[in-house]
Amino acid sequence: MSTKYKALDIDQAYFITITTVGWVHIFTRLSQKMVIIDSLKYCQAQKGLSIFAYCLMSNHLHLFCRADGTYTVSEIMRDFKKFTSKKIIETIQSEPESRKEWMLQYFQKSCEHLSREQKFKVWQDGYHAKEVFSNKWIKEKINYIHQNPVKQKIVA
């Protein structure tokens, strides 16, 4: 597995992007957004994740963060994706969702090629992490995070 875009350094801050399989627009429903927000809050309180900026778009999440506890950013992202995948599927199955059948079929088909046993795949493999290297870069990434929903006309 490539380590090019992985968060490997323990005390380092990272700009991270995680994306849904097929760029499926999952986070258009409040309940799905709350799965992510509640999970991020849990990671902050229980796993030592410091979040400096974030943006949840309809099909991906940007985080500017650092791990300050026992866990590494890599371990936190692994657990976050595993937990949120299960909760997202549960929410699709249990709440009104006009795209329910299509989404469940898509997420089921997305893991057919995997060698490991898995029923649904919500997130793309891995995540894209870039290590922080300067104050100018930090400002650029935070501005990018905050402007992302503006460029997509989600907010003014």
How would you sum up this structure in a few lines?
With 156 residues, the chain is of the alpha+beta class.
List the helices and strands and how they pair.
Blueprint: E1 13-19, H1 30-47, E2 49-56, E3 60-67, H2 73-94, H3 100-109, E4 128-131, H4 135-151
Antiparallel strand pairs: 1-3, 1-4, 2-3
Walk across the major sheet and give the strand order.
2-3-1-4
**What proportion of the residues is helical, as a percent range?**
40-55%
- SS-based structural class? alpha+beta
Percentage of β-strand residues: 15-25%
Query: What string, H for helix and E for strand, traces the elements in order?
Result: EHEEHHEH
CATH class assignment: Alpha Beta
What is the CATH architecture annotation? 2-Layer Sandwich
| Separate helix tally | 4
Oligomer kind: single chain
Please compute the radius of gyration using only Cα atoms: 16 Å
**What does the largest sheet look like?**
4 strands, antiparallel
Number of strands: 4
CATH fold-level name: Alpha-Beta Plaits
Uncertain spans, ≥5 residues at pLDDT below 50? 1-5
Distance between termini?
A: 40 Å
How would you characterize this protein structure?
Residues 1-5 have low confidence and may be disordered. The chain has a four-stranded antiparallel sheet, with helices on both faces. With 156 residues, it is an alpha+beta fold. It has one domain (13-151): Alpha-Beta Plaits (2-Layer Sandwich), CATH 3.30.70. A hairpin with a 3-residue loop joins β2 (49-56) and β3 (60-67). The chain contains four helices and four strands. 43% of the residues lie in helices and 17% in strands.
